[in-house]
C-alpha cells in the first residue's frame, strides 16, 4: 500500500485510517459518512414532522454531501462499494432534505 503515516479513526475499536481530508474530524471514511447519515436521518424526520432545521446543521450536511461528491468523483476505483453506496445515499438524502425545506418554506409563504 503506501508508506505515508496516517492517523487512526477516533471511534473506539475502529482500526481504519483517517483520510487526509478528514483529519480535522478524525474519522475514517465509513464513520464520517455514518455520522453524517445519522444527522441526515434525524433532520429528515424533524422535517417531516414539520419541525425546523438549524441552518448550521443544514450547512454541515451540505458540506458533507459535497465531500462525498468530490470523493466519489476522484476515487472511483479505490473505494469499497459499500462506502460508495452510502456516500451516494448521503448525497441523495441531502438533496431530498433541501427539497423538503424548499417546499415547506413555499407553503409557509402561501399561507401568510
Ligand atoms: Zn472508523
Task: Describe this protein's structure.
The chain is mainly α and 112 residues long. 63% of the residues lie in helices and 0% in strands. It contains three helices and no strands. The longest helix is centred in the C-terminal third of the chain and has 31 residues, at 81-111. The chain has one domain. Helix 1 (29-48) crosses helix 2, helix 1 packs parallel to helix 3 (81-111) and helix 2 (55-74) packs antiparallel against helix 3 (81-111). The structure holds zinc ion (ZN).
Essential attributes:
single chain; 112 residues; mainly alpha; 3 helices; binds zinc ion
Layout of helices and strands:
Layout lengths: L28 H20 L6 H20 L6 H31 L1
The structure holds zinc ion.
Total domain modules: 1
The helix fraction, in percent, is 55-70%
Oligomer: single chain
Class from helix and strand fractions: mainly alpha
Give the topology string: H per helix, E per strand. HHH
Counting H and I runs of at least 4 residues, what is the number of helices? Answer: 3
Ions, cofactors and other bound molecules: zinc ion
* Share of residues in strands: under 5%
Mean pLDDT: 85
**What is the number of beta strands?**
0
Shape: elongated
Cα-atom radius of gyration: 16 Å
Poorly predicted ranges: none
The largest sheet, given as strand count, sense and whether it forms a barrel, is: none
Distance linking N and C termini:
60 Å
Amino acid at each position: 500500500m503506501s508508506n505515508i503515516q496516517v492517523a487512526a479513526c477516533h471511534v473506539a475499536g475502529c482500526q481504519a485510517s483517517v483520510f487526509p481530508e478528514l483529519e480535522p474530524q478524525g474519522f475514517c471514511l465509513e464513520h464520517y459518512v455514518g455520522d453524517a447519515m445519522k444527522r441526515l436521518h434525524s433532520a429528515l424526520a424533524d422535517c417531516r414532522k414539520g419541525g425546523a432545521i438549524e441552518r448550521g446543521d443544514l450547512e454541515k450536511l451540505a458540506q458533507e454531501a459535497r465531500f462525498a461528491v468530490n470523493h466519489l468523483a476522484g476515487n472511483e476505483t479505490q473505494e469499497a462499494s459499500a462506502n460508495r453506496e452510502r456516500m451516494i445515499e448521503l448525497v441523495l438524502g441531502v438533496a431530498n432534505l433541501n427539497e423538503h425545506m424548499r417546499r415547506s418554506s413555499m407553503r409557509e409563504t402561501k399561507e401568510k
